[in-house]
Amino acid sequence: MTTLSRNAQVLRYFLEAAPGVGRTKLAKYAYLADLEARKYLGRPVSEFRYVFDRHGPFDAKAFFAAKQELHHAGLATESEVTIGSYVEHRMHPTNRAFEYTFSLAEARVLEYVASTYLSLNARELCEDVVYMTEPMVQAKPGKQIPMRIANRPTGDRLGFDLERMLAGEVSAEARRVRPLSAVTNELRDRAH
User: Fold this and answer.
1) What is the pTM of this model?
2) Residue 129: pLDDT over 90
3) Which of 10, 76, 112, 170 has its CA 20 to 30 A from that of 62?
4) What are residue 51's DSSP bridge partners?
């Protein structure tokens, strides 16, 4: 079985969701996935370290290493498309099967980003979404983007916990449930 870095797995996921996507949009999807994961899980999905690049959040060295990793594993191809004087590099997943190592919550975050943002064109994605995120608003050109400001607060016992909610859904689907009185008592104990 092929093993890939987290960065390459994130890129491959979005290539499957949006075959033929350009590098710029692909990098922005990874950024948004990490941002959403930080909000709901308190940690990113990937290991990218975003810098405020001339095209927004980007980790050039890690991005191109992950892209090469996908090419060497036979999991992605790339083509060039000329649009006027601009050459766009579009990436495509291959038919080779791959098994991801994402947790259920990480997979749901990736699904959310794909279903929410894949329909946007590059301008809308960058100007209306990515550049308006809190880390980008606070970022300085050429410097690392302060992604930690998006992290879910720790120690909030009554806060939303995506991983716990999804585990509860899995338990309910498997008919492993707890009596309502036990859940109610637990919530009361947490409030005090």
Assistant:
1) 0.82
2) yes
3) 112
4) 58, 144
